[in-house]
Amino acid sequence: MTLLCSIRSLRVTYHGQANPALDFAALDIQAGGRLAIIGESGSGKTTLARAIASLLPENSKHTGEILWPARSTPLPGRDLGFVFQDPSASLNPVLTVGEQVAEGARRHLRLSWHDALRHARDLLERVQLPDPEKALKAYPHQFSGGQRQRIAIAAALAAQPSILVADEITSALDMVVQAQLVALLNELVRDAGMTLIFVTHDIALASGLADRLAILKQGKLVETGAAAKVLAEPESSYTRTLIASHRSLSSPSLLRDTSA
Amino acid sequence: MLLSVENLTKRYLSGSRQTTALDDVSFTLGKGETLGLAGVSGSGKSTLARVLLRLVPADTGKVHFEGEDWLTLSGASLRRRRARMQMVFQDVLAAFNPRATVGSVLDDPLRIHSGKRARDRKQDVATLLDRVGLPTGFADRSIREISGGQRQRVAIARAIATRPSLIVLDEAVSALDVSIRETILELLVELQQERGISYLFISHDLAVLRAVSHRIAVMDAGRIVETGAASQIIDRPQSPAARALIAAVPRLVTDAR
């Protein structure tokens, strides 16, 4: 694998905040890899995803370097697709689904509206939205949360980016929908050979999808490495805590004196 | 039997479309028992909670709670009896007045239901905070300046303030970080063993339900499609809805792939 992005001495401080949201020495991202950024609330995981995507607010302060040795800095929307946590906030409620998905293709692939809408239709089919032809003319509120997130994924893929950033895209959805979306993401990334940056609070979810993990805690990078190695032989006590607090179907019940 | 629900039905009209949110739902809940209610979004779990809490009316069906015909209670008798059935929701910030202090949040139910004087209630607030593992000095804090996990402890303290026999928990731990989630689940189990409270514990996460439930009921499209001991539902699910929920729980893959 070749090096896609190399982050050095990154320190991000939001406007009006005394302490940095993110402050760590080094993280490398491999082209074509699947990196999971894992952390609890306040860990800086969303800040890191936004820093990589050049989507930090203008009034935030950042020092350090985000280098792209083999290419120019990716332009969000064209070279890098970003899927946000809440699709009802990231989709425009007064534009049709077709317009929103076609927009990226029209602007960055320079397609006509006619061709861009046909492209959008194909994308909606690829994200397995039912009746894509009809969906083009529908509005976001006519879809369920899971379907809206599929539309947001289609919009992120519209300009055929080589990098896809998914920031907690399933945390507002139920587990059955979550499993479907993760399977879809897995398939899309594999088929297109994209680099995936998957932000989550759920180490188990990450373990089924990523080949590398970066574990953040309170703005610090506490551990990074190959997923299998980090999970089997975690070096930091925090990673061990995260693994230990994962509750699976075979974890013992908390109820005493019961057969349940 | 603390609670028995018989043939509850609730339909919503949205435009010209009719949605059956609850379709002939029946179940029972014993004293000191936890019934886990599992299901995907839109399966009717939250509608069931809202009907039980008398926040929305049912179309048909009966509910017996502590020996009373719960859905026909009204006015002062309903207000008085509400102390016995409390709730904890997922989005705790939205569930509180944003300008409230922790102390006032806990004092409200005591003032309404206990009939005690202000000075005695202050002592009760301190006892409640202590019981849910928060420092008594928290009473003066704003509800907004404490963390999500601390806020959920306040919500639990508020729920137990009126000494309820039943607490309905609707996705009460879903928004919490895993390490905090575990301590909240432990607190809930402790309170149950200490006070004999029953829980109706709603979640789409079967791993969470397994941790705290004696029995689990699985909902799908407004119906309860399967009910049984927690271990039985997890180990030998019969319905497609239960199987889908089990398959969806993320597995921690620790071996090299």
Describe the structure.
- Chain A: Belongs to the ABC transporter superfamily.
- Chain A: It is found in: Cell inner membrane.
- The complex is a heterodimer of chains A (260) and B (257).
- Chain A is an alpha/beta fold and 260 residues long.
- Chain A has a domain of 71 residues.
- Chain A has 10 helices and 9 strands.
- In chain A, the strands form 2 sheets. Chain A has a 6-stranded mixed β-sheet with strand order 5-6-7-3-8-9, sandwiched between helices. In chain A, strands 2-1-4 form a 3-stranded antiparallel β-sheet.
- In chain A, helix 3 crosses helix 4 and helix 3 runs parallel beside helix 6.
- Chain B is built from 9 helices and 10 strands.
- Chain B has a 6-stranded mixed β-sheet, sandwiched between helices. Chain B has a 4-stranded antiparallel β-sheet with strand order 2-1-4-5, covered by helices on one side.
- In chain B, strand 1 and strand 2 form a beta hairpin.
- In chain B, helix 3 crosses helix 4 and helix 5 runs parallel beside helix 6.
- The longest helix of chain B is centred in the last third of the chain and has 18 residues.
- The termini of chain B are far apart.
- Classes of the chains: A alpha/beta (260), B alpha/beta (257).
- At the A-B interface, helix 7, helix 8, helix 9 and helix 10 of A face helix 6, helix 7, helix 8 and helix 9 of B.
Helix content of chain A: 25-40%
Largest interface: A-B, 38 and 43 residues
State the assembly state of the protein chains.
Answer: heterodimer
The CATH architecture of the domain at 33-44 and 166-257 in chain B: 3-Layer(aba) Sandwich
Number of E strands of chain A:
9
Number of helices of chain A: 10
Q: By helix and strand content of chain A, what is the structural category?
A: alpha/beta
Task: Assess the beta-strand content of chain B as a share of residues.
Answer: 25-35%
Low-confidence stretches of chain A: none
Please give the number of β-strands of chain B: 10
Protein name (chain B): ABC transporter ATP-binding protein
Keywords (chain B): ATP-binding, Nucleotide-binding, Transport
GO biological process, one term (chain B): transmembrane transport
Organism (chain B): Neorhizobium lilium
